[in-house]
Write a structure and sequence with these properties.
Blueprint: H1 13-30, H2 37-41, H3 51-70, H4 95-115, E1 122-124, E2 136-138, H5 139-165, H6 169-179
Antiparallel strand pairs: 1-2
Length: 180
């Protein structure tokens, strides 16, 4: 069962970085393969994290970084009063709906990156205590950060999924390949 990230065309740094982002998205998406909505929302440990909540969080996080790079307002901006809702499904939200939303964000990010003049182009970081004052980052940094962010949460998802039914990431890769 191959989990190797596909090679980019020689010199295609954008393609390579987007392939690594997509590989981590896939790891998170596979974490809910074959689960009921109740299983995906369950929290089998002392943590507040659930698989459906992780999916929502990474989708909204990717949107937030995309909007910062585009220098546009984020239509799903969270504040202190709604922060916890970014880690759980609320109202009529569903895993399928979150995945569809994330598909749209992913397509928009891919299109945006394909059309920026250079991965060296920068955008300002928000005025937050965890960022350097008047900090800026490049589009390259954005993609590397998304790989880091998604990979961190894919690890969380692996542990949650194994706690639910014992299925490992490699088993889910194999299951996804047979469903394709």
């Amino acid at each position: 069962m191959v989990t190797h990230v596909p090679a980019e065309s020689q010199g295609d740094e954008r393609g390579a970085l987007l392939n690594f982002v997509e590989a981590q998205r896939g790891a998170l998406r596979r974490s809910v393969l074959g689960l009921t909505a109740e299983q995906a929302a369950s929290r089998p440990s002392a943590s507040e994290l659930s698989l459906s909540g992780l999916l929502k969080h990474v989708a909204e996080t990717e949107l937030n970084w995309l909007r910062m790079a585009q220098q546009k307002p984020n239509e799903k901006q969270r504040d202190e009063s709604t922060w916890a809702d970014s880690f759980r499904l609320v109202d009529d939200e569903s895993v399928e709906g979150v995945l569809a939303f994330w598909d749209g964000v992913a397509a928009e990010l891919t299109d945006f990156i394909a059309n920026v003049p250079s991965l060296d182009d920068t955008f300002p970081l928000p005025d937050q205590p965890w960022f350097p004052k008047e900090g800026e980052v490049s589009m390259r940094w954005l993609l590397l950060h998304l790989v880091e962010e998604h990979a961190r949460h894919a690890g969380h998802a692996d542990i949650i999924r194994e706690s639910l039914d014992g299925r490992t990431a490699f088993e889910l890769v194999a299951a996804a390949a047979t469903d394709a």
